[in-house]
Design goal:
This protein has a domain at 65-242 and 320-401. It is built from 18 helices and no strands. The protein has helices spanning 2-34, 38-56, 62-67, 73-87, 95-117, 125-152, 159-180, 184-201, 204-222, 224-241, 244-256, 268-279, 284-287, 293-299, 311-336, 346-360, 370-387, 394-401. α1 packs across α7 and α17 (370-387) packs antiparallel against α18 (394-401). The two termini are 42 Å apart.
Length: 403
């Protein structure tokens, strides 16, 4: 009777796990295109089902697996960044909005950690294949919505841009999962389809992010250690030196275009706003102006509508030098840690990191939690890929996924 009950619990666990990963893999890229709340609903239900599945057929050592990321340097830097953002609530002009955003980020982080630590050591290959299928379904949904908007003349409400960000974030973890199972032909086919889709879509952040990830993947496959080292230093330097771009932009504009930045087409007016911010009140660059200042400032009309929403600008504006140093250290540690990742997945994780880093320097809003939630889905996709490999141990899988 005990064996029969254990088999029933295992069957129920596999069922709930399959449905949970289906909602995460397919529901996330499709839901983000169909409705503003679709992604959050699918993510919440999917993580809940994964946790229920783990509870029905629990594996010992859950607490140890949950605490293991706290020994990973990149994760510790992430927590330090959240702590500094929480401290900045003391001087932000929008403490309520900042507190709400911090609460959302904390809940998202906790849900992701639970969904990574709770499942069993070995993942089914069927769960893994759901993520590439979901990526193709997301592209098909974007194409259908774009066609419907063209035929009906309906205005674009930003759902297509959100879907493009989903493709950029989820592409390389999905391809990495196929490569981890030895499906190299399918991985190449999916990459080619995504590159063609990015070209047809003509959304600049998607094209740049996919191209950046593709370049990183090409170099990482040939020499992972050197690529990880160079990407680590390059990412840290870009984050720390990013204020030089708007600071020098007015001078360069006068030399090349013989005009002011505000008189040029987009994105030059955004550079003009950033240049004004970085060249005036330089002392505020040390501590920043407080968490959630950019989004609320634009909403209330305090900041110009052309204010950049890129994460690189937001970190400097809201969290100052301290936040920028923590961001640079986190990026450096993340890329350098790729050398300890499973060999089949490491190049694709380098590509995924590069794509997300490219999005951080583009006019993609990370504050609305859409991009952050998609990154959480990419983490879960990577965790399934790591656990689906034969003879993969839990420490390597958890270390990679929580990176």
């Amino acid at each position: 009777m005990r064996d029969s009950n254990r088999d029933d619990a295992a069957d129920a666990s596999r069922f709930f796990s399959r449905i949970g990963y289906l909602l995460l893999a397919v529901g996330a890229p499709v839901g983000v295109v169909l409705h503003p709340l679709g992604l959050y609903v699918m993510f919440s239900i999917g993580v809940g089902l994964v946790l229920i599945a783990a509870g029905l057929d629990a594996e010992p050592g859950f607490f140890d697996r949950f605490m293991r990321p706290f020994a990973i340097p990149a994760f510790v830097v992430l927590l330090a960044g959240l702590a500094w953002a929480a401290l900045s609530v003391l001087w932000t002009p929008y403490p309520v909005a900042a507190g709400q955003l911090l609460l959302k980020m904390t809940v998202l982080l906790a849900a992701t950690l639970l969904a990574v630590a709770a499942p069993r050591e070995n993942a089914s290959a069927t769960d893994l294949y759901l993520f590439p299928i979901g990526l193709v379904a997301g592209m098909a949904t974007m194409a259908a919505r774009a066609l419907a908007e063209t035929l009906t003349g309906a205005p674009d409400d930003g759902r297509l841009a959100a879907g493009a960000v989903a493709i950029a974030v989820l592409l390389f973890p999905a391809i990495g999962g196929l490569a981890a199972r030895g499906r190299n032909g399918l991985a190449r086919l999916l990459l080619i389809v995504a590159l063609c889709f990015a070209y047809i879509d003509s959304y600049a952040p998607l094209t740049i992010a996919v191209f950046a990830g593709y370049l990183a993947l090409s170099f990482a496959i040939s020499d992972l250690k050197r690529t990880a080292r160079e990407l680590a230093w390059g990412a840290a330097a870009l984050i720390l030196l990013s204020p030089l771009i708007p600071a020098l932009a007015p001078t360069v504009s006068a030399w090349i275009f013989h005009a002011r930045l505000t008189s040029l087409p987009a994105p030059y007016p955004s550079l003009a706003v950033a240049a004004d911010v970085f060249t005036h009140d330089k002392l505020r660059l040390i501590t920043g102006r407080g968490f959630a200042t950019v989004s609320r400032g634009i909403h209330d009309g305090i900041l110009p509508a052309q204010t950049p929403r890129a994460l690189a600008f937001t970190v400097w504006y809201e969290l100052g030098v301290v936040g920028a140093v923590l961001a640079a250290a986190g990026a450096w540690l993340a890329f350098r840690s790729l050398a300890r990742a499973p060999g089949r997945l490491a190049p694709y994780m380098a590509a995924a990191f590069s794509a997300v880093l490219a999005l951080a320097f583009l006019n993609v809003d990370f504050v609305e939690m859409t991009t952050s939630t998609l990154i959480a889905v990419a983490v879960l996709s990577t965790d399934v890929a790591a656990r689906s490999q034969y003879r993969t141990t839990r420490p390597s899988a958890a270390s990679l996924a929580n990176l």
